[in-house]
């Protein structure tokens, strides 16, 4: 009898412990709204996009199954292959520049000096601009008549008189990269600054006492401590760059397309039969993003395990 | 013992500072030059847009372009507003309503899920976080096709309404707020929450009355970030609206190029009109945005 009671009480204990440890059902109620929204506006559309990419024309009453023909069509299209090249070049160059400059700016505004608040305000301004407006603003500077960039480049003999940067395909890509670096470096800097400010000051003090130089401190303290923030910031930026649309929409039109603007031009600017190939090209972009994310997630998983 | 310990670092510091004086002065000069360059590059394009927006047609065609405007032509603003008017003003209103609604929803849903992920233990937490974050890698261009088909379906009639943009904008804003708030909530010392729990406060009361106020800078930063992300949207607006009934102002901006090939002053004026609210917001809230991004994490 006594042993039975003891048994019951231990079982009760362990159940309560499990509930305490597991917080009961509450967490599931808390995350339910978020997961529901994501299900409706992200999971359903992406599955439907995959379905559409295997049909001949989703805009007619009874679309037929088309197998992989849409994928064959876009992958066989030189314009699509060019758009992949454009997107990769644009992403690689802009993200490398943004990370490097963002880190420099973060280190700069992490130091104390008079007017630091003003500097942070100044760099926040490009970050706050809508991308399409940034594109429009830079287009004003790239244009032939009133463009200051055109004027400067012609003055430096980098452009022939009467020529403009956005005349050639490489020029359009360069223009898009410049605009994106201008707009997005501040965000990178702020994310990295947040990472920098978490690093305890005593680490640097201890290192100074030990006589290590600033440069040594940067590599032995700052970079390892910043690794996580850096990886997260990089993941956001790489994915954003791969999905670039606004800049290519305004600068490139149909001449220089990103994967996203190629998909848009097919789905929304083409005829009915172009819709499904457009969806297929968007799914190709999705797969590229999945691969890139998996690489980053495995890198970050390694860091989480170290912690 | 304590005195002895202090002496050694002081001696070392003296040696270092003797070497460091001239070095530090040089650093100061370098620092200010670097700062000046950064500020110049950040602001020059905005300055250029503002002066272009007030130049007269004659001065706009001057080559090389003038750096300081000789003319003042406010007419660019009225024609920017009236040439596609009343649509342009209506588009501004649309953008504001859509961004505010998106932000409020993202904050409510995001703080609930962030609290669960940061402070509670439950099965499938890693999976939940993975799902929320993986939405970040979805290309919006892959979503707009099916959303367009869904929203134009006569059964829903969502196409070209505010809802057609508020819901899709959550795809960007919700992972962003969830992620930001999770890291802010996680960095809060556990004792604070435990003290509230000992006092008998429920989990939800703890969230609203202890955690959210303590992480207010973080919550505010998340709000600003999702407002700007939503205001920034162009692709959803372009594909899921048809006219100024719901069209955001970002979609109106490229229309100026087509309709007025050489009206640079007008294009610049439109760009200034769209960005001035954001610039004012940054000027007022910069301290809270930056401290939100930084202080919340420092608390941990």
What is the averaged pLDDT score of chain B? 80
Shape of chain A: globular
* Secondary-structure-derived class of chain A: mainly alpha
Helix content of chain A: over 70%
The main β sheet of chain A shows up as: none
Features:
heterodimer, A: 307 residues, mainly alpha, 13 helices, globular, disordered N terminus, B: 300 residues, 0% strand, disordered C terminus
Brief account:
The complex is a heterodimer of chains A (307) and B (300). Chain A is mainly α.
What secondary-structure arrangement, pairings included, does this model have?
The complex is a heterodimer of chains A (about 300) and B (about 300).
Chain A: H1 2-22, H2 26-53, H3 69-75, H4 78-109, H5 116-128, H6 131-142, H7 148-155, H8 169-198, H9 201-209, H10 214-242, H11 246-252, H12 259-268, H13 275-306
Chain B: H1 2-54, H2 57-60, H3 75-83, H4 87-119, H5 125-134, H6 140-152, H7 163-186, H8 190-198, H9 203-214, H10 216-232, H11 235-240, H12 249-259, H13 264-298
What does this protein look like?
The complex is a heterodimer of chains A (307) and B (300). Chain A is 78% helix and 0% strand. Chain A has 13 helices and no strands. Chain A has 307 residues and is mainly α. Chain A is globular, with a radius of gyration of 26 Å. By secondary structure, chain B is mainly α. Chain B is 79% helix and 0% strand. Chain B has 13 helices and no strands. In chain B, helix 4 crosses helix 10 and helix 7 runs antiparallel to helix 10. Chain B is globular, with a radius of gyration of 26 Å. Chain B starts with a helix and ends with a helix. The N terminus and C terminus of chain B are likely disordered. Chains A and B meet through helix 2, helix 4, helix 5, helix 6 and helix 7 of A and helix 1, helix 4, helix 5, helix 6 and helix 7 of B.
């Amino acid at each position: 009898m006594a042993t039975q009671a003891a048994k019951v009480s231990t079982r009760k204990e362990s159940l309560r412990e499990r509930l305490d440890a597991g917080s009961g059902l509450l967490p599931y109620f808390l995350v339910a709204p978020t997961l529901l929204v994501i299900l409706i506006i992200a999971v359903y559309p992406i599955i439907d996009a995959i379905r559409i990419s295997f049909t001949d024309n989703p805009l007619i009453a009874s679309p037929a199954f088309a197998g992989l023909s849409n994928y064959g069509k876009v992958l066989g299209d030189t314009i699509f292959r060019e758009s992949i090249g454009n997107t990769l070049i644009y992403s690689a160059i802009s993200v490398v520049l943004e990370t490097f400059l963002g880190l420099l700016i973060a280190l700069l505004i992490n130091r104390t000096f008079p007017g630091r608040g003003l500097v942070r305000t100044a760099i926040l301004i490009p970050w706050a601009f809508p991308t399409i407006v940034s594109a429009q603003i830079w287009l004003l500077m790239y244009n032939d008549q009133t463009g200051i960039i055109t004027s400067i480049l012609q003055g430096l003999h980098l452009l022939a008189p009467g020529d403009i940067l956005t005349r050639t395909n490489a020029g359009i890509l360069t223009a898009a990269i410049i605009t994106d670096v201008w707009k997005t470096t501040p965000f990178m800097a702020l994310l990295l600054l947040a990472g920098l400010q978490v690093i305890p000051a005593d680490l640097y003090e201890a290192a100074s006492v030990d006589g290590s130089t600033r440069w040594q401190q940067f590599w032995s303290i700052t970079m390892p401590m910043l690794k996580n923030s850096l990886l997260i910031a990089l993941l956001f930026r790489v994915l954003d760059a791969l999905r670039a649309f606004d800049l290519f929409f305004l600068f490139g039109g149909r001449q220089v397309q990103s994967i996203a603007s190629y998909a848009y031009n097919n789905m929304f600017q083409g005829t009915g039969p172009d819709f499904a190939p457009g969806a297929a090209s968007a799914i190709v972009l999705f797969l590229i993003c999945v691969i890139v994310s998996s690489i980053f997630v495995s890198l970050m998983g390694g860091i989480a395990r170290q912690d | 013992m304590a005195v002895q310990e202090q002496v050694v670092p002081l001696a070392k510091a003296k040696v270092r500072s003797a070497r460091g004086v001239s070095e530090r002065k040089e650093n100061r000069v370098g620092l200010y030059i670097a700062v000046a360059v950064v500020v110049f590059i950040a602001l020059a394009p905005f300055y250029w847009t503002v002066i272009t927006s007030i130049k007269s047609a004659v001065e706009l065609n001057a080559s090389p372009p003038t750096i300081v405007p000789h003319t003042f032509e406010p007419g660019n603003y009225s024609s920017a507003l009236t040439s596609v008017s009343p649509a342009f003003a209506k588009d501004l209103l649309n953008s504001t309503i859509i961004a505010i609604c998106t932000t409020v929803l993202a904050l409510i849903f995001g703080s609930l899920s962030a609290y669960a992920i940061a402070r509670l233990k439950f099965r499938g937490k890693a999976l939940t976080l993975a799902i929320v974050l993986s939405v970040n890698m979805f290309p919006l261009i892959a979503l707009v096709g099916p959303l367009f088909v869904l929203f134009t379906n006569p059964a829903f009639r969502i196409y070209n309404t505010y809802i057609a943009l508020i819901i899709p904008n959550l795809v960007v804003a919700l992972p962003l707020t969830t992620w930001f708030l999770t890291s802010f909530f996680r960095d809060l010392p556990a004792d604070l929450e435990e003290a509230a729990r000992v006092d008998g406060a429920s989990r939800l009361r703890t969230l609203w009355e202890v955690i959210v106020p303590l992480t207010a800078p973080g919550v505010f930063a998340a709000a600003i970030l999702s407002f700007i992300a939503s205001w920034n949207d162009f692709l959803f607006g372009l594909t899921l609206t048809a006219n100024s009934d719901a069209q955001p102002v970002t979609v109106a901006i490229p229309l100026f190029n087509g309709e007025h090939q050489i009206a640079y002053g007008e294009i610049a004026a439109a760009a200034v009109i769209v960005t001035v609210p954001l610039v004012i917001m940054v000027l007022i809230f910069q301290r809270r945005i930056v401290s939100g991004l930084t202080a919340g994490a420092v608390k941990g």
